[in-house]
Amino acid sequence: MQLVVDPVRHTTSPLVTGGSVIGIKCSDGVVIAADTLASYGSLARFQNFSRLLKVTDSCLLGGGGEISDFQEIQRLLENLTTQDFCFNDEHKKSPRSLHQYLGRVLYAQRSRLNPFWNSLIVGGYVQSQSFLGMVDLYGTTFESEVLASGFGVLLGLPLLRKAYRPDLTVQEGIKIVEEVYRVLFYRDARSINRIQVATATVDGVTISEPYSLETKWDFKGFVNPRSTYDESTW
Amino acid sequence: MFYSLSTLLIPKILESHTEIKLYILHSHFLFYTHTHTHIYIYIYMASIGTGYDLSATTFSPDGRVFQVEYAQKAADSSGLTLGMCCKDGVVLAVEKVLLSKMLLKESGRRVHLIDQHAILAVAGMGPDGRQLATRARQECEQYRNIFRMPMPAHLLAERIAGYVHVHSLYWHVRPFGCTILIGTWDGKQGPALYMIDPSGTFYRYYGCAAGKGKQGAKTGLEKLDFHQLSCEDALFELAKLINAAHDESKDKPYEMEMIWIKRDLGKASLVPPNLIETVRQRAEQLAREEEMAD
User: Pfam families attached here (chain A) (predicted)?
Assistant: First the structure.
């Protein structure tokens, strides 16, 4: 008889996952983008899945990681905003409050050894102030001018940091984010060249329809590879 | 204590209420109660409903449940509450009687938002109504959590009516002292208006009324054509009915509260105060003119 029982493992690995989410703070708002892929392991299972969410008129959320956990978080936020609606006191949750709320939710889950397997980026624009914050699956919360999750941390962050200026406009921010996604599509096997870009500005939150990025593959090394090994694009 | 009570108090009461003698002998409360006042209250109340109104669990011989009827009385003792189901939405209105001049405007509201698509108005005891509003919100949230869509009106009304109904089945709870009106807008089914009374009875209406002066208001409602009426027009009609039910010389001043759910707004909201003020003044003006004409 087995005397030592294995520890309970509620979540050991995510199943359906989303890739990188990128966020950048601008002087007149915030830009958050995500591609529209939900992978099943290495299979590009759902290719038109939106991972961006409008939470309030001034706050938006992008999520990577386990998609079902993201949907659960979406449900929690909907309940929260419905409650706010019923109070009818003109008060809406600020992006900062929602960021903190998600931090508490994800921390509580990981403390039960059953984390929400997500990295979330919260952005918003309230009273002429941009907000950009991140929550990881441990419940760690932090803020930054540029944020990336997943593979984007490795490939996107250096580009974002290089491109960042405090006086960036949202229009410039969108261009930068598109460039980052192009790089990610070239290098990250769990990505797709179809993205959505969301902005929070003084005009409220807008989430674009999904659109494809133009990509270029006819590099000399690709077209005429001399050998399998010496033309590594790294 | 019990000793002195049985020797002093009871014989006295029995003399004047001989009818209820049997009841007192049967009542097990008698043996558990230790103060004069309690016993006295039991006996006193019993004399009204001939003993069948102590608990909502007991029918009277002619098939009535007195506790529930008393609750309905409580519901009808408050200001007039009206609902209209129009072609493009639902409007609910309440005549909120102001018990003190020191009350802040818009406090102690009797109209409540339940969900993006549902509204509720209370006639009767405000706290009881608030409890039902909270319950209705929970029901809507639960439905959303499971089915990811707004709760259909008939289900919401049925759930709340069921909740009200179970409060008329047990001796350890008090029935709700309020009648509530529930309005919803559903993208598929359009507008719906339900009224639930303290017994848990509920019906769907074109127009309905509860509270003081409901009879007169019902007569007024029956004259309207709800297939043609828009929410905007309904505001004025509601203001007229409430104004008509109110006797300025006799009744306390009141605040008019209105809440609606309309197709073009997409979600429920309180009617803006300035709009309510406008229709109220128009209604009062009209009433004055009619008085002059007479």
Answer: Proteasome
